[in-house]
Amino acid sequence: MKIVLADYGAGNLRSVCSALGRAGAEAVVSPEPRATREADLAVIAGVGHLAACAAGMQQTGLADALRERVESGRPVLGICVGLQMLFEESEEGGTGLGFFSGPVVRLQARRVPHMGWNTLSLRGEPKILEGLDGEDVYFAHSYTARPAEELPGAEVEHGGTIIAAVERGALAGVQFHPERSGSAGARLLRNAIAWSKSA
Amino acid sequence: MVKKRLIPCLDVTKGRVVKGVRFVELRDVGDPVEMATRYSEYGADELVFLDITASVFGHDPIVELVERAATELEIPFTVGGGVSTLEHARRLLRLGADKVAVNRAAVERPELLTELAAEFGAQAVVCAIDSKKVAPRKGEVVTHGARRPQGLDTIEWALEAVERGAGEILLTSIDADGTREGYDLEITGLVCDAVSVPVIASGGAGTVKHLADAFEVGAEAALVASIVHEAPERIPEIKRELKEAGWPVRI
Fold it and tell me: For position B60, what pLDDT does the model report?
C-alpha cells in the first residue's frame, strides 16, 4: 500500500503525510507525475488559492496524471483545497480539474473563514466517512464547492448547508483537515486507506 | 454550527513554555510540544505558540518546535512572535504550522498581511493585536511586549487587517492579560461587531464564566493560559461546563 501526495508547490503536505503514517500507511510527498500515476492512492492536499494550485498542477504534469487515474477508476482523495480542485470554476479565480460538476463559491456567513470544529451530517453511505456521522472535525476555509449533483458525502452548517465531503466510486474529497481533526480525523484517514484498497 | 474554541496559549521563550503577568515576571512551566500534546489529549481545540521574546530581541522564530509540533499534533496550531517578514512566515507554514500570527510586523508593514493571504489563503493568517485601553470604548494598538504605543485605534486597525487579508483576529487586552479577572469584554465586543472574521479573545481568563462572557460578546474562541497550565486535566470539565451553559463546544 503506497500513498503519494502530489507535490504541486502548495506547501505543507508534511502534516498530512505524518497523519497518514500514524494511520498505518506508507505515504510520501512527490512532485513526479509518475509517482502519482503509480500510487495505490493519490492524495491532493495543500492550502491557499485554487488558482495557484491549479496552475501548479498543470505545470508539473500532475493534472494529467490525476486525470488518467480518475478515468481508469483508481483512487484519488482531495483534502481541503484538494477537494475544491476536484470541481470546476472557482469564484476565487482559476479552474479545478472538473472531476465533479459544480463551481467553487465564496462562503456566505457572518464569519468567514469558516474556522474551527463543526459537526458532520452524513448523506448516503460514503465509505470514507463510515462511523463519522455527528463527529466534529476541523475546518479552515473561505470557499466551498457546490456540487451540481447529489453525491454521497457529508455536510455541515455554516451560513447555510455546505459540503464537507463527497465520494463517488474511487474519487473522494474532504473539505476539513483530517490531519488536524483528532481521533475523528484519524478515523477518516484509516477509512480512506481501506476504501482505496477496495476501490 | 461551528463550535466555540478553547485555545491554550503557550508562551515560549528559548524553547520553554513560560508564563508572566502583564508580559513580565516570567516563570518556566514546561516543554512546549509535550504540553501541547497533553492539552490536545484533554480536548483543547487548537493551540497557539507565541515566541514572546523573539520580537523584543530580534530572534528567529521557533523553527525546531514547529517541525516537531507539525508531525506530532492532531489539532491545529498557530505560531506567532517575531514573525517579521514574508520569508519567516513562509518558513513556518511550510514546516507545518497551520497559521501564523503576525503582530508588530503587520503594524509596521500592513502589506505583509496581503502578501501572506495571497500565498497561503486568509485562513492561515492571524493578525494578533495587543490593545491598551485609552478611553471608554477605545483601545490603542501597542507593540514590543506592550511597551510601545502605536497611535493606532484598535478597531480601525482590526478592520484594516481584515481588509488586507487577515483571516482571524487574536485580540489581547494588555490591561487584562495575566490578571485572571476576565477578558476585556468591551473592546472584545467592539472588535467582534466590527469585523467579519473570527475573533479570538485573549488576556485575563481565570474562570469558565470568563470564557462564556467572551463568547457572549461575539468571540469565536477563547485563549487561555494560567487556568489550563496549572491543571490541564480541567479542560474536559471546563468544556462540559460551557456546554451545560448552552455554548456549542466540542466534547
Answer: 59
Kindly provide the ipTM of the predicted complex, given to two decimals.
0.95
User: Average pLDDT, stretch A135-154?
Assistant: 97
Where does A12-171 have alpha helices with state H? Answer: 14-22, 33-38, 50-60, 62-71, 81-84
Reported as a single tens digit per residue, the pLDDT across B37-89 is: 999 999 999 999 988 876 544 555 578 899 999 999 999 999 998 888 999 89
* B95 in reach of chain A (CB within 8 A): yes
Nearest Cβ partner for B70 among A15, A112, A158: A15
- Catalytic residue positions of A, numbered: 80, 177, 179
Of all helices (H) and strands (E), which one includes residue B26? strand B24-30
Phi, psi angle pair for A103, to nearest 5°: -85, 170
Strands B221-224 and B199-202: parallel
Q: Is B184 on the interface with A (CB under 8 A)?
A: no
How do the domains of chain B map onto residue ranges?
5-244
pLDDT in tens, A21-68: 999 999 999 999 999 999 999 999 988 888 889 999 999 999 999 999
Phi, psi angle pair for B132, to nearest 5°: -120, 135
Q: What confidence score (pLDDT) does residue B16 get?
A: 85
Distance from CA of B5 to the nearest CA of A (A): 7
A198 touches chain B (CB under 8 A): no
Please tell me which of the candidates A19, A52, A117 has its beta carbon nearest to residue B2: A117
Q: Which three cell numbers stand for residue B146?
A: 506592550
Q: Which residues of A touch B96 (CB under 8 A)?
A: 12, 14-15
Which CATH superfamily includes the segment(s) B5-244? Aldolase class I (3.20.20.70)
Q: Which residues of B are catalytic?
A: 11, 130
Give the per-residue pLDDT at B146.
73
Distance from CA of A79 to the nearest CA of B (A): 14
